[in-house]
Design a protein that fits this description.
By secondary structure, this protein is of the alpha/beta class. Helices cover 35% and strands 15% of the residues. A seven-stranded mixed sheet has the order 2-3-4-1-5-6-7, with helices on both faces. Strands 8-9-12 form a three-stranded antiparallel sheet, with no helix packed on it. Strands 10-11 form a two-stranded antiparallel sheet. It starts with 7 loop residues before the first helix and ends in a 5-residue tail after the last helix.
Length: 490
C-alpha cells in the first residue's frame, strides 16, 4: 500500500529528507517513535506516562537499561522540527497528577524530544557510542492515518466503498439520513455550494454517530471530517461520496466534477504531505487500540476494528534496510500493537485480552501483506487507575478492581459521583477468541458473564516520607519500552 501512494517525485523528496536527517544523526543519534491510535485509545496518556517514568526513574522491571541501572538520566530537549507543535507534556502531567483528570485527547500532530544518557552493556559499544540517544516522539491521530489508503483510490472507489460500508447492518440506521439525502442528488446537476455543504455535513454527522460508544466503530475515513483542525469549513473538506455516479467522465461544472476535484485536493494538500513529512520519517511505531470499547459494542465493532488495524498497518513502510539504503529511506522495523486500559480488567483476563489482540493483529498483518518488521502485541495500561481485590458474594469469592469511576459513569442503574471509590467485578473475557469476532448473529454463550466497563479517574499518586511524588503506576509499560527502544540502549 505504502509504495502505491507515492510517485517518483515523492520518493525523491523523501530520499533527500532522509539523507539530511541521517547526516545530522551521525553526531547526535536519534530515534523517531510514532505514537498513534484511534480516538480515546490513550495516546496522550501513553506519551505522558512514558516520559514521566523515564525522567523520574519509575518502576520498570522489564526495561533492561533501567533495571540494570545503566540509565544515568533522561530529560527533555528542544524538538528538531520547529514547524510541528510541541507535545504539551507539562500540562498533561499537571492534569493527571494535580487535578486527577484525563488530559485532552490528540486533535493534531505534535512532537517531543526525550534524551536518554546511558551506559552501554557492551564494552565494545562503550568505546564507539556516546551513550546518548534522543527519542523524537511523534503523536498523531489514527483517524488521519486511515486517510492514507485514499491516496491509492479514485473518487469512484471512495464512493463505492463508502456506500457499501454505510449499508452494513451495524451502520445502516445511522447512515439513513445521509443515504436519503445522497439518493436524491443528480451527479450531473450543476455544481452548487449549498448542496455540497449539505452532503458533507450529513456524511460527517453519520461518521460521528458511528464513533459513539454504543457502536464504537473505527473505519471512518476521511479522518479530517472527525478532526478538521484548521481546515474546518474549507472547500477541501466540503465534499462527500455520491450514491450514483455519471457514466464515463463527469461533465465539467457538474456536482460530481466538483466533488471529484475537492476529493483530489484533499488527497494532494492534506493527506499526501502528512504521509511524506511524518509517516515516512518514522523508525518505530506503536499503535494503541481501545479493544475494551469495541468488545463492549459487540462483534460488529470488533470486525470493524480489525478492518481499521489492517488499513493502518498497510500504510507503514516496514522492513529492515542496510548501511547504504538507510541513508535514503527509513523503514519501520518494529511495530507494537497495544490494547490499552488493561487496568479495567482483573489480571486474570489480561492474557485473554492479549490473545484477542494477537488474533486481530495476525489477521490484519496477513491481509495487509505486511512483512519485514517485527510485530508484537501487549495488553497494557500506560497509567493504572485501579487496584485489585476480592469480595465475597455468598459462598463465591469474586476478583474485583477498585477505583474511582468518572462522574456520570453508570453500572447496574447506579450513577457515580466522581468522588467515591468503588469495587467492581468487571466480568471475564471469553475463553474462545473467535467468539468476539463472530458476526453471525448467534446468541452469546449464557455461561460467559457480561463485561462491566466503566471509566475511572487517574490514580492518586503515592508520596514518599520526604514528600516526593512517585512515578505514575502502569501495567506493562516497561515491556512496551523494552520492545520499542531497548535494543538501542543495549
Amino acid at each position: 500500500m505504502a509504495s502505491s501512494i507515492t510517485n517518483f517525485t515523492d520518493e525523491a523528496r523523501i530520499a533527500l529528507d532522509t539523507l539530511s536527517g541521517r547526516a545530522a544523526g551521525l553526531f547526535s543519534p536519534s530515534l523517531r517513535l510514532g505514537v498513534t491510535g484511534l480516538s480515546r485509545a490513550g495516546k496522550t496518556v501513553f506519551i505522558s506516562a512514558l516520559v514521566h517514568n523515564l525522567i523520574h526513574g519509575g518502576r520498570l522491571p522489564l526495561f533492561q537499561a533501567q533495571k540494570s541501572g545503566r540509565i544515568a538520566r533522561a530529560f527533555l530537549e528542544e524538538q528538531p522540527d520547529d514547524a510541528v507543535p510541541r507535545f504539551q507534556y507539562e500540562d498533561h502531567v499537571a492534569a493527571l497528577v494535580n487535578d486527577r483528570v484525563w488530559p485532552d485527547s490528540t486533535r493534531a500532530i505534535s512532537e517531543l524530544r526525550l534524551t536518554i544518557e546511558y551506559e552501554s552493556a557492551s564494552g565494545w559499544n562503550r568505546l564507539f557510542s556516546a551513550g546518548k540517544l534522543s527519542i523524537d516522539i511523534v503523536d498523531y491521530p489514527g483517524e488521519w492515518l486511515l486517510d492514507l489508503p485514499l491516496l491509492g483510490k479514485s473518487f469512484a472507489d471512495f464512493s463505492r466503498e463508502a456506500v457499501e460500508l454505510a449499508a452494513l447492518p451495524v451502520r445502516s440506521d445511522l447512515s439513513q439520513a445521509w443515504r436519503e439525502t445522497a439518493s436524491a442528488i443528480d451527479p450531473d446537476a450543476d455544481a452548487d455550494e449549498m448542496t455540497a455543504r449539505r452532503l458533507a455535513e450529513s456524511f460527517a454527522a453519520f461518521l460521528k454517530a458511528c464513533k459513539l460508544d454504543d457502536r464504537a466503530l473505527s473505519t471512518l475515513p476521511p479522518g479530517r471530517f472527525l478532526m478538521p483542525g484548521d481546515l474546518e469549513g474549507s472547500p477541501a473538506l466540503t465534499f462527500a461520496p455520491l450514491m450514483t455516479l455519471s457514466k464515463g467522465r463527469p461533465r465539467s461544472g457538474s456536482l460530481q466534477a466538483m466533488m471529484e476535484r475537492r476529493y483530489e485536493a484533499y488527497k494532494t494538500h492534506v493527506v499526501k504531505p502528512f504521509f511524506r513529512e511524518h509517516i515516512t520519517r518514522l523508525d518505530r511505531q506503536i499503535v494503541l487500540i481501545d479493544a475494551m470499547q469495541a468488545l463492549n459494542a459487540g462483534p460488529a465493532a470488533m470486525a470493524d476494528l480489525e478492518r481499521a488495524v489492517t488499513e493502518i498497518l498497510s500504510c507503514f513502510r516496514p522492513g529492515r534496510g542496510n548501511f547504504l539504503t538507510d541513508f535514503f529511506s527509513r523503514r519501520i522495523d518494529r511495530i507494537l500493537v497495544a490494547a490499552t486500559k488493561a487496568d479495567h480488567l482483573h489480571h486474570e483476563s489480561h492474557d485473554r485480552l492479549q490473545a484477542i489482540v494477537r488474533r486481530l493483529t495476525d489477521r490484519a498483518v496477513a491481509r495487509a501483506n505486511f512483512s519485514g518488521a517485527a510485530v508484537d502485541v501487549v495488553a497494557m495500561a500506560a497509567i493504572r487507575s485501579t487496584r485489585e481485590g476480592t469480595v465475597k458474594q455468598g459462598r463465591e469469592t469474586l476478583p474485583v478492581i477498585i477505583g474511582t469511576p468518572l462522574k456520570g459513569e453508570k453500572i447496574n442503574g447506579e450513577t457515580f459521583d466522581g468522588k467515591t471509590e468503588t469495587a467492581i467485578f468487571p466480568g471475564d473475557l471469553p475463553e474462545k477468541v473467535d467468539a468476539v469476532f463472530d458476526t453471525s448473529g448467534s446468541p452469546p454463550d449464557s455461561t460467559e458473564p457480561a463485561i462491566r466497563f466503566v471509566r475511572f479517574r487517574p490514580p492518586k499518586l503515592e508520596r514518599t516520607a520526604e514528600g516526593v511524588t512517585l512515578s505514575l503506576p502502569h501495567i506493562r509499560l516497561d515491556r512496551a519500552l523494552q520492545f520499542l527502544i531497548g535494543d538501542h540502549l543495549a
